[in-house]
Structures are given as structure tokens and as C-alpha cells.
Amino acid sequence: MNDTLPDHHNWPKPGMLYSEAVRELHATIENDWDSVKQSACQTAAGRALWKHVVHDPLAELFAGEKYLISLYEKIKKDRLNNAREVSGVILAVRTLWFESKLEAAVKSFGGAAQVVLLGAGMDTRAYRLECLKESDVYEMDFPEVMQMKDTLLQAAIESITEPSQLSLTAKSLTRIAADMKDEDWFKKLLESGFIPEKNTVWILEGIIYYLPHSQAMGVLKTIADSCRITQTVLLADFMNKQSTTLSTTNFHFYSDWPDHLLPTLGFSDVNLSQIGDPDADYGLFHDPHNLFNKLRGLPRSTQNHPDDGTPCCRLYLVQASGSPNQTVTRPDSS
Fold first, then answer.
1. I want to staple 275 with a disulfide (CB 3.0 to 4.6 A). Which of 2, 4, 18, 292 is the partner?
2. Residue pLDDT, tens place only, 229-267
3. Is there a domain that residue 318 lies in?
4. 263 assigned to some structural domain
């Protein structure tokens, strides 16, 4: 781990400046939501507590005290023990990777695009990324999550010290209440103003592996079909099969070879990175004995680590693209 990271004494603490209204809303999340929906707040806590590398002023609001305190204590313990992986580092790297690729994709479209975040959770990019100032953003998630997000923002307006943090940076933001396991999710996107003929960046961050296989493949196929109509970029993270063992109740879809799968659906250009690769490192994985660096040194076909037999749990960061004039190359899956 990079020695320039703060130690356990100096790790940035969460602010926890909550109004009573915000506290009550988070109590509802803790009491009424299942673990899949709550993962949206856990992800926000990761962004909040890695604020020295991820700039997200709204992350603490969406995380809630429970998840902030829990992760903060884990981080302190990891830094005290000189752990090779500090809690939350994957979330930090994943966030930075998606935002870097998103900015590059929008720039390639001339600075304007449609950006669709499926399973958006407590994402805040529409409020903080300058690269989206000419883009229309669509967020889709469970009705309870989208409603709670709006309600938290309204409750924060009265207590937040910097109202500018609640100002939209994107050209527009549309929230769509839909369960991606339902077949009508794309219809709801169209009814909300999405235009299939416009250049689009699709973001599937921390979501695809929660879906059953048939639904996940349906979502990927729908996105791939857009390549026939307009310039399309997909940014997504995929678990390999072994990673689904981390939570057999929540994780379902996997792909050991997403860079081989996506071209069969219609994408012409696919690039895959693993945590710790040059474009997915950000100075946070220098230690050669770090778990992710050790995994990168093994063939991707290796299912269990030869040293101790533990499952090789990999997270793949994938960028895929296509356009109506593309030529699709279909690699073998050996």
C-alpha cells in the first residue's frame, strides 16, 4: 500500500453534521431496506472516507452515520496494522476509474452525451463532474432508492453549510424509478426522454452481478443493440465466478471473460482492466504482495490461489464501445 496514505491518526474523519430529519431518513434505510438497497449507502461511505482521492461533497449525506462509522473504524484498524489492503480502497479505485473513463467518453463525443446510470443508487456525478455540463444524465434504480435520494436532498437543503453542493452540474438530471429485473425498464427510460439516436454512455457500476443471469444478459443485450443506432460506450464492472461466493444470497451473475462475452453481443471494441493495472491503480497498489497484485500475476483461468487454495476473487473493470459502422471481432473464449 502506498506509504503516502494517511495513517490511522490522520485519516480524514466524516463530518456527521446531520439534521434530525436526515437522521430519521437514514433510520428508515437501516430498518426497512434489504442489503442490496443498503449497498448504495455503503458505496457512498467509501467515497466519503476516501475524500483525499475522491471529491464528493454529498457522499456523507447519502452514506449515513452507521456506514460512515463502521467503515471509518475498519480503516483505522487496517492502517494501524499496516494492512496490505485498506478497507474501501476498491470503492475508491472503482470510482476513479469510472470517472476517468466517463470523462474520456464524453470528450470523444464532443463534450455532450446522454449518460445512463443503471442501478444508480446514491451516485452524485451529476452534481460534481464538470465533464457532464453539456450532458443529459438519467439515473435508474428501485423506486424506494430514487424517492429516498430526492427526500434526503430536500432535507439537506435546510441544514447544509454550502448550498452550492446541491446545485446540478450536468445539463439535466432525470431520475427513473424502475427495477432492472423487470422487462419494462428500457420502456420507462424511453418514456423519461431518453433518445436512442443520441450518443450514449451507459454506466453499470456495482450492479450487474446482483441480477439473475437471464436479466443481466438481457440488460447487456439491450445496451449492445444501441450500437446499431448510435455511438455507444458501456462502462461496467464484472465479477468472476469465484467472487460470487462472497455473498451467495446477493451475487448471481458473473463472467470470467467479459472481454470475450461482450463482442458476441455486438460491441466492436472491448478493453478490460483488473484492480492494480496501470489505469486502475491511482497510486494505491504499490505493494507487490497486495492481494490484487498477486491475482494479476496469475492466469485469469486460475480459480484458486496455488499458495493457499483460497478462491481467486477478481473484479474486472470493462470499457466496451460500438457504433453503426463498426466491425465486430468475436474472440474465442479459451
1. 292
2. 999 999 999 999 999 999 988 999 999 999 999 999 999
3. yes
4. yes
Task: Give the separation between CA 230 and CA 225, rounded to whole angstroms.
Answer: 10
Nearest to 220 by CA among 209, 230, 229, 231: 209
What's the total number of domains in the chain? 1
Which uninterrupted H or E stretch holds 187?
A: helix 185-191
Q: Are 113 and 149 in contact (CB under 8 A)?
A: no
How far, in Å, are 7, 97, 124 from residue 55 at the CA level?
19, 13, 10
CATH of the domain at 294: 3.40.50.150
**176/147 Cα distance (integer angstroms):** 10
Helix ranges restricted to H, the chain: 20-32, 35-49, 59-63, 65-80, 89-108, 125-128, 143-157, 185-191, 213-225, 258-265, 291-296
Single-letter residue type at 104: A
Domain assignment present for residue 262? The answer is yes
| Nearest Cα residue to 137 out of 165, 161, 102, 90 | 102
Structural domain span for residue 121: 89-322
Model confidence pTM above 0.90: yes
